[in-house]
Specification:
There is one protein chain. This protein has one domain (about 5-55). The chain has two helices and no strands. It has helices at about 5-20, 40-50. α1 runs parallel beside α2 (about 40-50). InterPro entries: Fur_reg_FbpA. This is Fur-regulated basic protein FbpA. It comes from Metabacillus litoralis.
Length: about 60
């Protein structure tokens, strides 16, 4: 995986974590810390809470 792609994924994860924290969500529904989740898992958590996709909010 290229460095640019890795940086983009990391940035998207950080943005999604910040959105979840703003919603007072600090752990996943299975009780894991947000930083332990993959990007897909973070996006699913966001969708569960809001009913919207993350891309609609960033």
């Amino acid at each position: 995986m290229g460095d640019i792609f890795k940086k983009a994924i990391k940035h998207r994860k950080e943005q999604t974590i910040q959105l979840l924290i703003k919603l007072d969500c600090y752990k996943s529904t299975d009780n894991r810390q947000l930083y332990e989740l993959t990007l897909s898992e973070l996006e699913n958590e966001y969708k569960l809470l809001t009913g919207r996709r993350v891309s609609d909010s960033i």
